Records
---
Amino acid sequence: MAEALSREGIGRLFFGRSWAQPAETRIAARRARVVCVASGKGGVGKSILSTNLAVLRARLGERVLLIDFDVGFANDHLLFGLAPRHDLVSVLEGRTGALDAVVPGPEGVFLLSGGVGRTELVSATRRELDRLFRALAPLEARFDRIIVDHGAGLSYATLAQLAVAPTLLIVTSHEVTALSDAYALFKRALAANPKVRAGLVINRVPSRAHAESAWERYSGACRKFLGAVPELVGWVPADEAVGASVDERKPLVLARPESAAARAFEPIAAWRALDQGAGASAFYDQACAALR
Ligand SMILES: Nc1ncnc2c1ncn2[C@@H]1O[C@H](COP(=O)(O)OP(=O)(O)OP(=O)(O)O)[C@@H](O)[C@H]1O
Ligand SMILES: [Mg+2]
């Protein structure tokens, strides 16, 4: 079972020194840049994308925290081969601090799990989310990158985060039902957050032709009805290597780096919008404000 890192432990990992030293002697930390990963339809590949993106961004030298906001139905710990003792519900209930719920994963990535079988946050109230977001806010000073892997659809928690997210990756398959839901998600995100840099990832496509045809339909509808189109950040082929990496509980880019799908994640991790905004803004403070 993965142990939650103590403050001391994380402090040593990040800074090679004690976490508990006086504030003035700490290395000044910038705020993490945040990217939300969301979809309308479920099961389209958000968690596969989020876990692989986390590894690839860590390889670029970022201190990466993946927050699994699919609370109660979290998967990212399984995809990392971890069994964290604490999760977002423990943080909400005040049984642990956010930092103490964070566990180390592969390639120097850190994970804050959403927990399994705990439905407390599925219909979270404004007060609960406010408390949780406030508890998460200090994490922003400890990481360069926060990737938020959302549950499918638009829960209150997801919407509050999309309303203030600087960047959003929308995941879909090439199928018309998933595309329609991805359109609805983009529409809602744009209405709440007109400044969001949104990108689309078309996952599990049988061929380039399927990806191109899906993009044509999706971008056409967005342009016509919304007057705005997300960027096409990439498409990922349907690849048996993905299922094999899930069975191995290891991110694909580690388990099968030569596979076609692993190769397809590389340009997605290099999406230029991920580097926008020096120092970035106080994401969870803003998310609290978005609850009102
Ligand atoms: N490119 C791919 N090729 C083949 N299989 C894939 C691919 N991407 C995802 N899968 C399969 O689809 C499953 C679901 O993916 P994932 O858990 O990432 O979806 P999700 O959008 O996070 O689902 P949920 O909405 O439940 O959170 C994976 O376990 C994997 O087996
Ligand atoms: Mg998921």
---
Amino acid sequence: MSTVFITSTGTDIGKTFVAAGLIRHFRRVGQPVDAIKPIVSGFDPTAVAASDPGVLLAGLGRTISPEEIERVSPWRFRAALAPDLAAAREGRTLDFDAIVEFSRRAMAAHKGALLIEAVGGIMVPLAGRRTVLDWLTLLRVPALLVVGSYLGTISHTLTALHVLAQRKLDIAAIVVSESEGSPVPLDDTTGTIARFAEGFEVIGIPRLPRGADHLAFGRIAQLF
Ligand SMILES: Nc1ncnc2c1ncn2[C@@H]1O[C@H](COP(=O)(O)OP(=O)(O)OP(=O)(O)O)[C@@H](O)[C@H]1O
Ligand SMILES: [Mg+2]
């Protein structure tokens, strides 16, 4: 059990949904777990419980206090834009080295499973020409690639796998979190991805009610 970097093909796919499910699983089986989401854009200080750090903290059973939000998500921006643009709206920039350092310190401090939720998709710009992929490349921890089952996901998923392979990054699993109104059954999407992603675990998660348990979370938890 160690650190996993939860990334995706885009935004609003299911990273936080999967992270929260994993957190519930680890807590249920009595294993220590923590989660960070260092960069959040679209953060509304008046609706903190609905934010990614709010959801992660609730899953962890911790108070959703300003101190805890700061501990989980030190880089928060109001605009729901790519983080570099959201930061620019506030006259700020993202310090790439500080983000890497923050992640490394969290990894060193925590004993047990640490979930690092990235931001948006795998090549979202952070600062200058640095992207989420560069952040993951420096951390060198396994990626949990969360993808959807919407029309177009196969190409997005294979493209993400290609850049991860190019950097020789480990992939703990590919998780297909079923998109609303998927055009095909979930098994068709996981099957097609598995056909291309030989050697990788491809795990589907159907549409679930918020907070619901599912066997898939336990399967994923065993892979990192
Ligand atoms: N399998 C699923 N069943 C039910 N709802 C889901 C599922 N996967 C994702 N969702 C819902 O879809 C929405 C987007 O998911 P989520 O917030 O986890 O995306 P994200 O990838 O973390 O986005 P961001 O890039 O903003 O961090 C949420 O309302 C979430 O609860
Ligand atoms: Mg999220």
